[in-house]
Amino acid sequence: MFFPEAFINKMAKMLTEAELEKLKTALDTPLRKSIRVNTLRGTTKEVVESLESYEYVVDKMPWYKYGYFIKTAKKQAIGNTYDHYLGKIYVQEASSMLPVIALDPKEGEYILDMAAAPGSKTTQMCMHMKNTGIIVANEPSIQRISPLQDNLDRSGCINCCITRNDGRKFSHYTGMFDKVLLDAPCSGEGTFQKDIKARYVWSQNKVIENSRLQKQLLDSAIACTKKGGTIIYSTCTLSPEEDEAIIDYALNKYDNISLEKVSFEGLETSQGRTEFDGKEYNKEVKKVIKLWPQKTNIEGFFVCKMKIDE
Amino acid sequence: MATKNKHRRFFRLQDEDRRIDPDPEELGKIETKKLQIYLNETYGIALDYLESLILLKRGKDIWITNKAAKSMIGIGKNLNINSLGLRALRNAFEVPKMTTNFAVFLNDKITKNYYEMTKEQLDEFTRGSEIKINAANEFKNYLILKYNKEVYGVGIINNGAIKSQVPKGRVLKNQLSKEIDLEVEED
Lengths: 310, 187
What we know:
The structure holds two protein chains of two kinds. Chain A has helices at 5-14, 17-27, 44-53, 82-85, 98-103, 120-128, 145-154, 196-201, 204-224, 244-253, 293-296, and strands spanning 33-37, 57-61, 64-71, 89-91, 110-113, 134-138, 160-163, 177-183, 225-235, 257-260, 270-271, 275-276, 279-280, 289-291, 301-308. Chain A is of the alpha/beta class. Chain A folds into two domains: 5-29 and 94-308, 3-Layer(aba) Sandwich (Rossmann fold); 32-92, Alpha-Beta Plaits. Chain B contains five helices and eleven strands, in the order H-E-H-E-E-H-E-E-E-H-E-H-E-E-E-E. By secondary structure, chain B is α+β, with helices and mostly antiparallel strands. Chain B has two domains: 21-103, Nuclear Transport Factor 2, Chain: A (Roll); 113-170, Archaeosine Trna-guanine Transglycosylase, Chain: A, domain 4 (Roll), CATH 2.30.130. In chain B, strand 9 and strand 10 (150-158) form a beta hairpin. Chain B has helices spanning 9-20, 29-43, 76-79, 100-106, 119-126; strands at residues 25-26, 54-58, 61-65, 81-84, 86-90, 97-98, 114-116, 131-132, 142-147, 150-158, 161-164. At the A-B interface, helix 4, helix 7 and strand 7 of A face helix 1, strand 4 and helix 4 of B. Strand 7 of chain A pairs antiparallel with strand 4 (81-84) of chain B.
């Protein structure tokens, strides 16, 4: 299967030859389908029973009580079930659930989701907050607002305010939010497993271009988070330029931020790199986590938990 | 070379969006009371149920949100708010039409003006088809459709049948056997 040469060369700088082969094999293996139970609409028990009645085999994720892997011998679409129709389930990648678990949204909090569409993480936060507090679900792209609204509505979310701004605008709202989720726009190397097209549109130039925007968005997230507040920076990519380098940039620029370790039960995560391609990163970057598809059997992902000092 | 032709979809959408959706404002006490009475008389919603929510007026529609979200109204202009909460009623001040999402949200709070479907009728209804019924004159305005005591949507009586009001994007496809991935929903 095709992989961009520059991508493979980059991965070769981080992995052994054997690991690189395993990565290629993992990226060519179909992704396990997964769903999240939306407890605003139904209970895990009733949803599991209902999916089993559609002849789905349902496996709970060890690290998240609302996440399930599903498979079926029948050729059927999960989107055609009544559970989906009623918003009791949300089709969501397993790795996409991790940033919200790390953010740990609480009832009554004021949270910004800086790049919200299509709303997987927004609806997940809403569920954890039991429709209390506020989530400002920001999405700069007008074309992506409609699917975002549809998903919020179907999931029964009433505590969300959809805004349409460039995320960098939030730097003007100093200390406004308890927590910020920045699931940054990225080159999507983690999605190579499910989206073959993503391999063809990938380029190192795009990685560099993304990293500039990611730094600016993280600046904005830091500015609009309260003292003592939490920021989750995540991407679905594996390039250090879009992951560790962004965190290194923030650690060197701000003296009021610190990183916190995150872990997920039963998931083999890797710590952040402290050097890449001759560049040394801040030692604190070790606290971030990277998910390699060949180790985790889920989509590649990057998660960093950052605190704004009191 | 691309031009900013006003008839091109992208620019038209932006303009329409600005024109149709004024900023949300909190519903006044008198209008709230009228709405509480309407929902109570038509659907059996307890009069005090809406007191835990904030009702917002946006054009002809009513949206619901929680009390904390009320603080967003004041800063709406600067933040370019697209929507706040969930659209509950369309055309609320003439012939109110409850949205499917609000009906599902209310679920067991709805105790009047509903029709309990059979499994076959549920399949028809969620696929956007009409349901033939005998007692059409027992219902008023937009009625609620339930199956196993759970709300599935809103319908309207038309020539002795219930016409499904399930939004097109929400209608279930014909067979479970057809593989359609919902990639749009995923991150």
